[in-house]
Structure formats: C-alpha cells, structure tokens
Design goal:
disordered N terminus; 11-stranded antiparallel beta sheet; about 25% strand; alpha+beta; disordered C terminus
Length: about 450
C-alpha cells in the first residue's frame, strides 16, 4: 500500500471503456460537445459524421457551417449533417471515402480523428507538410493531443472526448495563442466566461507539474509522517515512517501496530547499509530477520523523466477527475479510480500470487483517491497527504476474503531528521538472513536450474 501511494503520481497505463464523462461535461459547458438521445453515449464508437462535427467545433467553424450555403457531391449524408460536410468539403477538410460517398455512418478510427484534430490546430498533412496520414498518431503524441493511455484497441466517443480535451491545451501551429482554447475564445467560438474555469484548471495543472518536476529531481531529502489504515472488521494499522535519502544512500524506519480485535501485532522495519531488517512481535513471540536491499536512484529518476516542465504534457489530466486548490493553498488532486486499479493489476501480474497461497483472482476495486500537495514559499513540495479507499477481494486456502481499506498517508519534508535504529543490527544471530538456497542441480553452462527442480517459491 505504501508503494501504491508513492507511485500514484507517475502512472503509465492502458485502459478501455468509457472513463471521461467529466471531460465530456467540461466540453459540453464550452459548447464543443453534445450528447445523443442516450446522453453522452461515450461507450460506443463514433462515426465519421460525429468526428467531423467535432472537428468543426474545435475549429470554431460550426456557426459558419450552419449558416453557409455550400454543396457537396456525396449521396450518403443525412440532412442534419449536410451543412457540416459541405463546409468541410469546400474548405479542403475532407474529401470523403469515395467520389460520391462521405462515409457518414462508417466507424471513425483514432488515426482519422487525430488527423482531424491536428488539422484543427493548423498542422498540414499534405505532401511535404507537417505529418503524414500514417504518422498521425505519432505526431499527435509529440504535440500533446494523443497519449498511449488511449491506445486501447477500440476507439470510442470517450476517447474522442479525451483527445479533444487535450487539444484545447495544445498550442496551435501558427503560434497565435497559448493554446487552442485561447484561440477559440479570441475568435468568439467560446465565451470567456465559459472558458474561465478550464483556464484555471490548466493553470493549476501547470503548477502541479512544476512541483512534480522539482520532486523528480530531488536526490536528497528527509521525510517523516504517518500511515493509518482502517480495514473494517479486519482491524486497523497505524505506522510511523521516517525516511532519508542522500545520493544513493537510503535509510528508513517504519514502526507500526496492527490491531484486530484482541490481537495486536507490532511490525517494524528498518533499511540501512544495504539491508532491510524486519521485526514482528505477537505478544512475547518475536521474529526477526534481514534481507539484502538494493536501491537504484538512477532507475527511479528514469521513471519520472517525463516530468520536465519545459516540455509540459497535459496527458496526466486524463488520470484526474479534478484538480483544485484547498483552503490552505494546497493543490487537491482527485484521481480516477480506473487509473489506480490498472496500475495495481499490472503490478500483480509480476507477482506469483499462486505461490503465495492465494488464488489468481485477487481483485482491487478502488473508490475515491485524493492527494493533497503542499508547497513552501518558493513553490517546492513540503508535504503530501493521500486518502485512498479500496476493497481487496482474494482467495487464500480455499477461503474467499473481502477487505475494505481506507488509507490515510501524511508525509512531510523536514530537516535534520535522525532515524533511530536498533542497537543490535550487526548481530547476525539476532538478525539471521532470510534467504532461499537453490538446489544443487544447476546447469553449469548457463547458470540456471531446471524449472522442475527449483522450489515453487523461487521460480
């Protein structure tokens, strides 16, 4: 759970099905997206007619299309769509799928819609232009209107909404404005009052990314805090955490108590000098061991290398339900449940669940997850607080277990933190090494053991 809390702000994931209703609502408030008789209808594929209408709205040309007197050569265009198609055809935005067919009801693809959006931003896909048809996704990613999170194998109206929203934050190719939304306001396609909350959201996001970039560059810091976990009828866990990092040297203490009814477990962990030391005490029964601990700061920094504020990407907005400011000036970020759920599922794929005595059907169901990010007078991170709600369902030993979890983790950056360690850490008898010895049947030529000869715990 600690790892989940630390990693949540740098997720890389793949998702499907409708997820972006809140973004659809924002686009609707701007007059850039409308629903159908079934609402926003986000969980179905858009057709080419819907994609074209979205293009003209992002261009700020919907009114011109509806008021215009244009003609087109296509015989498969319904009356409601005809003004849009005629305007687009006469302005070189579409040529249709054949000389006499626009393909109004044909399913739109991500490649087609990203091409439309890039045209709305002023990029040229003609011969010798900015991008080619088959390179639309790659080019769209480079200019911030597409992200691998949207590459799900099926293209939905939900994805069309997400791409359109990213386009609002992208700069037009002409350099006329900071972003597409600014151009739409300038041209009168969107009112300034309607755009104001979206501009405010963009500004908070840029502030958030600047703090994230600063945190990603930190190679020395000291943190102290607490983690409280309520597991309903399964008990509670309260932990005090202290952590220091200096270059490649990490030290940590985690002193916690797990309470379940009348039972109390004291669980303590320390990391120092390349080892992790663990102590578990249940009454007078105490178990202690140590294991080697490897820490690679360069690898962690590589994970966060995309947080350079000089190359600002708005893609992380797709992971957030909202971003705002609290009464104390802190940033308040609410994450979409699917984002955390997918990350945990990917982590679980790397763990041999069956060998731990649990069924492969371990399931994490996330609810609200909110992070509060505090900064000092210079804009540097000073405190993070995360509140996470989830339910874990698993099967162990043939018994199905459901555990509701409410976690509240609060960490502050401090100075001159001194971590206290047990006096006997150098006593090998008090802290025996927890290790598994591989069998002797090891292939001498490649240094590997036959799979059937290796204990299940080590495969």
């Amino acid at each position: 759970m600690l790892a989940v809390a630390v990693l949540v702000s740098s997720l890389v994931l793949t998702v499907s099905a409708a997820r972006y209703e809140s973004l659809a609502e924002e686009l609707n408030s701007l007059g850039l997206f409308r629903g159908t008789e079934a609402g926003f209808d986000l969980d179905r594929a858009p057709n080419r007619g819907e994609a074209l209408v979205m293009l003209l709205r992002l261009l700020g040309d919907e009114e011109a299309a509806l008021d215009g007197d244009y003609e087109h050569p296509f015989n498969d265009v319904p009356d409601w769509l005809s003004p849009y198609v005629a305007f687009a055809y006469n302005n070189g935005l579409t040529t249709g799928v054949a000389a006499d067919r626009f393909g109004s009801t044909s399913t739109a693809t991500a490649q087609q819609f990203v091409t439309f959006v890039l045209r709305a931003l002023g990029y040229d896909d003609s011969a010798g232009g900015d991008f080619t048809w088959d390179g639309a996704i790659a080019f769209g990613t480079s200019v911030g209107v597409f992200d691998p999170i949207l590459d799900t194998g099926e293209f939905l109206r939900d994805h069309m909404v997400a791409i359109s929203y990213l386009a609002l934050a992208a700069a037009p190719a002409s350099g006329c404005c900071d972003n597409l939304l600014s151009r739409l306001v300038r041209d009168g396609a969107v009112t300034a009052s309607a755009a104001e909350p979206v501009f405010a959201k963009f500004a908070l996001y840029e502030e958030y990314m600047a703090v994230e970039a600063q945190m990603a560059e930190m190679t020395e810091f000291e943190m102290t805090g607490t983690m409280a976990v309520d597991m309903g009828e399964h008990g509670t866990m309260n932990t005090e955490i202290n952590l220091t990092l200096s270059g490649t040297e990490l030290q940590m203490s985690s002193i916690g108590t797990v309470t379940d009814g009348d039972a109390t477990i004291e669980l303590s962990q320390w990391v120092v000098d390349g080892y992790e030391y663990t102590r578990m005490a249940i009454g007078e029964n105490v178990t202690q061991h140590r294991t080697p601990f490897e820490f690679d700061m360069a690898e962690i920094q590589q994970m966060t290398q995309g947080l350079n504020i000089d190359e600002l990407s708005f893609a992380q907005l797709l992971l957030m339900t909202d971003i705002g400011r609290g009464a104390g000036g802190q940033l308040v970020i609410t994450y979409r449940a699917f984002a955390l759920q997918h990350m945990v599922n990917q982590v679980l794929q790397q763990i041999p669940i069956g060998e731990l005595g649990m069924d492969d059907s371990v399931d994490f169901s996330f609810g609200d997850t909110v992070m509060y990010l505090y900064t000092d007078a210079e804009g540097n991170a000073s405190r993070t607080r995360m509140i996470m709600n989830l339910t874990i369902s698993l099967e162990a030993g043939g018994i199905a277990v459901t555990i509701p979890i409410n976690m509240n983790m609060d960490m502050q950056i401090v100075e001159d933190l001194e971590i206290e360690f047990p006096d006997d850490l150098d006593d090998a008898t008090a802290w025996p090494m927890l290790a598994v010895t591989l069998p002797a049947e090891v292939n001498a030529t490649n240094g590997t053991a036959d799979a059937d000869s290796v204990p299940a715990c080590c495969r």
